[in-house]
Amino acid sequence: PGLWRRHLKPRYAAMFNEVRRRGAYVMFHSDGWIEPIIPDLIEVGVKVLNPVQPECMDPAKLKKLYGDDLCFDGTIGVQSTLPHGTPEEVAREVRHRIRTCGPTGLILGPTHSMQPDVSVSNILTMYETAHNTSPVF
Fold this sequence. Notes:
Layout: H1 2-21, E1 26-29, H2 38-43, E2 46-50, H3 59-66, E3 71-73, H4 81-84, H5 87-101, E4 106-107, H6 120-133
Parallel strand pairs: 1-2, 2-3, 3-4
Helix pairs in contact: 5-6
């Protein structure tokens, strides 16, 4: 985090200030475990964090800590549940995510591009379950 704060944070702050000055929201993409810098991202104006990978960060924990300041995008794992789970497991994860992270402040979806190893059945289950679980989705 020290190097990020010293070298990147000031540059992001300047760039995001220009974006926000023009009335836009800032969405920040970073794969992996970035929990130590989430408060810094909020400080420099990030409003949407993409993705929140459940393989390396707990979306429910992040929602409790930062849910008043951040919207979370992509919380259904493309390295775990979507390619390797059953439709029932996908549905369970979607319902759990909506219950613990939604219905507001959540853009429910895959954490990244879905690869060929994700079955059509699991993709349909993800979206159908979201739609049937909450009117927001």
